[in-house]
Amino acid sequence: DYIDCTDQLHESIIKSCIALSHQFSTLTLGFDLITSDISVPLSETGGAFNEYNFLPYVDLHENCNIGQKRPVCRLIWDYIEAHKSRIVTPEFGVF
């Protein structure tokens, strides 16, 4: 099952994700972590980040079958549209 638990995520974990994301020049970044309880700081559970992904699997958020579906693709697209002068430049290489 894909279960949305976003609202239970502890603020310190969110802040850690944001701080880590500033170390990379990428549009998207997803984090995987191991912990017994996402509602408390990782330092209290002995939890840790075990992976980050530059191309996170956003379908898990868009199409969860338990909990709130989150419009992640729309948020990413809106960000691209709002910042396209910085993202799509003449130096933007073809993949």
Which radius of gyration do the C-alpha atoms yield?
A: 15 Å
The computed structural class is alpha+beta
Number of strands: 2
Which term fits the overall shape? globular
Q: What's the helical proportion of residues? A: 25-40%
Question: Would you write up a description of this structure?
Answer:
It is globular and about 45 Å long. The mean pLDDT is 89. Helix content is 36%, strand content 12%. It is an alpha+beta fold. Strands 1-2 form a two-stranded antiparallel sheet.
Jot down its keywords.
95 residues, alpha+beta, 5 helices, 36% helix
Q: How do the helices and strands line up, and which of them pair or pack?
A:
Blueprint: H1 11-21, E1 30-34, H2 42-45, E2 48-53, H3 59-62, H4 72-82, H5 84-87
Antiparallel strand pairs: 1-2
Short description:
The chain contains 5 helices and 2 strands; from the N terminus they run H-E-H-E-H-H-H.
